[in-house]
Amino acid sequence: MKISGVVYFLFEYTCRKSSTSIGANLNSKSLEDGLSTLGISFNSGTVDAIRKYHALLVAWNENINLTSVTKWEDAVYRHYLDSASLVMAASFLNRWDSGHVKLLDIGSGAGLPGIILKLLFPKLSVTLLESSSKKCRFLVEVCETLHLSDISIITERAETQAHIRDFRAGFDVVVSRAVSKLNVLAEYALPFCKIQGNMVALKGRKVDEELANAKPSIHELGGRIVKVVDCSLQMPELDGRLVIVEKNNPTPGIYPRRVGIPSRRPIT
User: Fold this and answer.
1) For the domain bounded by 79-264, which CATH number is listed?
2) What is the model's pLDDT at position 2?
3) Domain limits of the chain?
């Protein structure tokens, strides 16, 4: 059933009102302590913006499936500090404050990690790529509510968007969280990377098998795995792994293949 513009307006208005009451009662100590542990500079405005984002997430999640993690204390670690953990990748902390980095978040969903990285590093130029139009409506609402600039939201599949001239080989860093196995994700992500750019995949602790299976795919697509970071070594509350891939050669023009093929027939 098609939802009318009036119904969507009322829905967004209700979510906005609901989020205001939610955000007022969130204790930020665990978030602030975590950001400090990661070495990320922040101020009260940064923390307040993440609280407002969380309130919007909870309000919208009642009608659109954005996440199963809605309790603030759980979300601080599993969403916000997990997203922020990307600074553990070599030299990224300094680069993202430079104002010269273009970042793409593939399969952005609720805006994780892209929105959080933009809030923490306002000089980042961020593009959120998400195929669900409903989730993109949420992302638009977040950007408007938080007054974010230099951030783009694209409703499209990676297999299609990667063949668009301004997007192919157009990004310094391509990130993705909870999107496909590594050998499939590489075909989605590496075509977007500039030469000497990086793909960073946020993975769980059981990533070793994926690493072995992904090496042929990553090599074929012009990249090489340069590092795997165990986030728990710096922050025990996090159990993620960052797989950092550097792109050394152009990705052959046939990649990514048509929608559905990368997941059905991964490169071997």
Assistant:
1) 3.40.50.150
2) 40
3) 79-264
